Amino acid sequence: MIKFNFNNPTNIVFGSGALNELGKQVLPGKKAMLLTSNGKSTKANGYLDRTIEQLKAAGADYAVWSGIMENPLKDAIMEGAAFARDNGCDFIVALGGGAVLDSAVAISAMATNEGDLWDYVFGGTGGAKPLANKGLPIVTITTTSGTGSEINCWGVISNLETKEKIGFGDPCLTPVLAIVDPELMKTVPPKYTAYQGFDALFHNTEVMMSNGVNVLSEAIALSAIENIAKYLPRAVADGNDIEARERVAYGSTMAGITMQLTSTTAQHSMEHSMSAYHHNLPHGAGLIMISVEFARFFIEKHACDEQFIKMARAMGIPNADKAEDFITALINLQKACGVADLKMSDFGIDKSECMTLAKGARSMQGGLFLANPCEMTDEDCALVFEKAYR
């Protein structure tokens, strides 16, 4: 429990109004690739213009590229990398949610390395080549609370040709500066506030379940779980509740730290398989769909009962004394956030796919299965999908 290795070089500027501090920071280059999504929210809400003003205040030039979609695609990464090179950008400013932040890591690498992104991906059909060169420095400005990607060196990218969704990263790609301003999150719609909040929650609950949990990752994860469980329903109910936004953002950013101290588990592998085969499925929604049955599998195995009890207490059951109390707390939170009735079938998933999804999870991100508190076979994994299916 005491042994751990933690090194995060990211300077985190956290709190309401933090975007106004960007212009006062020492930036890692002279010309930024200002990376955003292909949606309209950052421009419509004024976040893009505010970021440009801050870059000008810092004396930095910029070129805007808005080519990132939900569940970002390999082809978009390669286009973005070419844009960075063609425009002489020497660092990246990623303004957006998890898809943009994840993409920044991959674009950073491919802007300075030859070949195709999939040459460097570990897992599935990836080539597993080491990076020959460091990537472009990254500054992140997150507009959502979910992935924790603002402070870590990993991104999850989809390859439509191979029907894979795999994590990619390297310690040299860790962002140098992260701006976490909860005021930028007030305009996220209730449904996506819930999806993203549960993604942040599960990063922390999976760390707690992981066989690699340690004294530091547990302490941070429990703090994050407590804040998300208490304040996410409020953020879903009223997006302008800045206290709720701050607390959920805190839980999400802390997940970026806990995931560096301790790996998440196969719950994330399983969802990545779901959205690899069904690209329109939001990551957080997929996690919610399988979360109860995923936890129940380990509860029935008595794999980490004490961890479930600790989480149940953090989630509002102070007298929890059995692992099953975590299931109760999780279902109650899903109901409070209006996401307890999500169905796989609504996103085109058929029950006959359960074994395909199970095998895909192990093929794409089998390493996360090693973090599970006990063995989970393909048959076990498929059964979790079957029990969760609606």
What do you see in this structure?
This protein is of the alpha/beta class and 390 residues long. It is built from 13 helices and 8 strands. It has helices at residues 41-44, 47-57, 74-86, 98-110, 190-209, 215-237, 242-261, 266-277, 283-300, 305-314, 324-336, 354-365, 378-388, and strands spanning 11-14, 31-37, 61-68, 91-96, 138-142, 154-159, 164-169, 177-180. The strands form 2 sheets. It has a 6-stranded parallel beta sheet with strand order 1-8-5-4-2-3, sandwiched between helices.
Based on the model shown, name its key terms.
globular; six-stranded parallel sheet; 390 residues; alpha/beta; 8 strands; single chain; two-stranded antiparallel ribbon
How are the SSEs placed, and which strands pair?
Elements: E1 11-14, E2 31-37, H1 41-44, H2 47-57, E3 61-68, H3 74-86, E4 91-96, H4 98-110, E5 138-142, E6 154-159, E7 164-169, E8 177-180, H5 190-209, H6 215-237, H7 242-261, H8 266-277, H9 283-300, H10 305-314, H11 324-336, H12 354-365, H13 378-388
Parallel strand pairs: 1-8, 2-3, 2-4, 4-5, 5-8
Antiparallel strand pairs: 6-7
Entry summary:
With about 400 residues, this protein is α/β, with parallel strands linked by helices.
Strand content: 5-15%
- Count of runs of 4 or more consecutive helical residues: 13
Q: Could you describe the largest sheet, including whether it forms a barrel?
A: 6 strands, parallel
Overall shape: it is globular
Order of helices and strands: EEHHEHEHEEEEHHHHHHHHH
